[in-house]
Amino acid sequence: MKFGVMKPHRRNQLLLICILVLGLGLALMFTLRALDSNINLFYAPAEIKNGTPPIGKRIRAGGMVKAESVRRASDSLEVRFEVTDLQGSDFEVHYTGILPDLFREGQGVVATGTLDSDGVFSAEEILAKHDEKYMPPEVAMVIEGAQIQEASAL
Amino acid sequence: MLRWFHEWGSPKAFYLRSGKMLPWLACLTLVLLTVGLVWGLLFAPSDYQQGESVRIMYVHVPAAILAQSSYAMMAIAALIALVWRLKIADAAVQTAAPLGAMMTLLALATGSLWGKPMWGTFWIWDARLTSTLILFFLFVGVLALRSASGQGRNAGRAASVLALVGLINLPVIKYSVDWWFTLHQPASFTLTERPAMPVEMWAPLLVMVLGFYCWFALAWILRLRLEVLQRERRSEWVQRLVSP
Question: Cβ–Cβ of A130/B117 closer than 8 Å?
Answer without folding.
Answer: no
